[in-house]
TrEMBL record:
<feature type="active site" description="Proton acceptor">
    <location>
        <position position="156"/>
    </location>
</feature>
<dbReference type="GO" id="GO:0004318">
    <property type="term" value="F:enoyl-[acyl-carrier-protein] reductase (NADH) activity"/>
</dbReference>
<dbReference type="InterPro" id="IPR014358">
    <property type="entry name" value="Enoyl-ACP_Rdtase_NADH"/>
</dbReference>
<feature type="binding site">
    <location>
        <position position="93"/>
    </location>
    <ligand>
        <name>NAD(+)</name>
    </ligand>
</feature>
<dbReference type="InterPro" id="IPR002347">
    <property type="entry name" value="SDR_fam"/>
</dbReference>
<feature type="binding site">
    <location>
        <begin position="65"/>
        <end position="66"/>
    </location>
    <ligand>
        <name>NAD(+)</name>
    </ligand>
</feature>
<comment type="similarity">
    <text>Belongs to the short-chain dehydrogenases/reductases (SDR) family. FabI subfamily.</text>
</comment>
<feature type="binding site">
    <location>
        <position position="14"/>
    </location>
    <ligand>
        <name>NAD(+)</name>
    </ligand>
</feature>
<dbReference type="InterPro" id="IPR036291">
    <property type="entry name" value="NAD(P)-bd_dom_sf"/>
</dbReference>
<keyword id="KW-0560">Oxidoreductase</keyword>
<feature type="binding site">
    <location>
        <begin position="192"/>
        <end position="196"/>
    </location>
    <ligand>
        <name>NAD(+)</name>
    </ligand>
</feature>
<feature type="binding site">
    <location>
        <begin position="20"/>
        <end position="21"/>
    </location>
    <ligand>
        <name>NAD(+)</name>
    </ligand>
</feature>
<keyword id="KW-0444">Lipid biosynthesis</keyword>
<keyword id="KW-0276">Fatty acid metabolism</keyword>
<keyword id="KW-0443">Lipid metabolism</keyword>
<dbReference type="GO" id="GO:0006633">
    <property type="term" value="P:fatty acid biosynthetic process"/>
</dbReference>
<feature type="active site" description="Proton acceptor">
    <location>
        <position position="146"/>
    </location>
</feature>
């Protein structure tokens, strides 16, 4: 399948380290011929990510604080100068304050709730608005969700609410951007060992339960998610938008 994304420029937002899902997607996209551009949240992460990206090739890494409209505008203006056009965007950005994941959900602070929704859901609206002008020939936007958006997952708490908002955002964006031939979809990934996942209490139990109860009787890995992301970024999914595709070995269909 080499060359699946040949001639496409893909923006990857949210690579934090080599164990992240975003990095697995970037690796697979590069193997399939895509030209990549990366963004990081702050200058503090710039050199670390640039060093990681050098393993793939000579790809630009830009700073983009998704909590700032000015930063988003500035980074996309730089992207326009560098690439002129983009064909795909991977939004792998989410965050909740640790104190809002440790206590009871009912104890979630107003500030913590606003932070989780702003970073994890509103950011998709903000970057999609900026990306639309660079997708002059149409394009694909892909974000990452989790079953905690649909069901109560112990320890997930306010992130579950944020992911539910993210999935609704996917549908509304898909409806509005479809006339510009821009597709918007989400991947609901099964539990995967990442550094971010370590912030979820009892994550090891979630991983074991999902692997033991899903139809395939195995844990999903980053390559499973990356494969679906390649499909959604490619012309093979030209008729797919507004979807939340579960890549969890079928766990979401089970009643227990």
């Amino acid at each position: 399948m080499k060359g699946f994304l040949e001639g496409k420029t893909i923006l990857i937002m949210g690579v934090r380290n080599r164990w992240s899902i975003a990095w697995a997607i970037a690796q697979s996209a590069a193997e399939e011929g895509a030209a990549l551009v990366f963004t990081v949240q702050s200058g503090r992460e710039l050199e670390q990510t640039a060093e990681l990206v050098r393993d793939l090739g000579d790809y630009p890494v830009l700073e983009c604080d998704v909590g700032s409209d000015d930063s988003i505008q500035s980074s996309f203006e730089e992207l326009r100068r560098r690439s002129g056009v983009i064909h795909g965007l991977v939004h792998a950005i989410a965050h909740a304050r640790s104190e809002d994941l440790e206590g009871d959900f009912i104890a979630t602070t107003r500030e913590g709730f606003a932070h989780a929704l702003n970073v994890s859901a509103y950011s998709l609206i903000a970057v999609s608005r900026a990306a639309r002008g660079l997708m002059s020939g149409g394009g694909a936007i892909v974000t990452l969700s989790y079953i905690g958006a649909e069901r109560v997952v112990p320890g997930y708490k306010v992130m579950g609410v944020a992911k539910a908002a993210l999935e609704a955002t996917v549908r509304y964006l898909a409806s509005e951007l479809g006339s510009s031939s821009v597709r918007v979809n989400a991947i609901s990934a099964g539990p995967i060992k990442t550094l971010s996942a370590k912030g979820i209490p009892n994550f090891g139990n979630l991983l074991e339960t999902a692997a033991g109860q899903n139809p395939l009787r195995r844990a999903v890995d980053r390559s499973d998610i990356a494969g679906t992301a390649l499909y959604l970024l490619s012309d093979a999914s030209a008729g797919v938008t507004g979807e939340v595709i579960h890549v969890d070995a079928g766990y979401h269909i089970m009643g227990v």
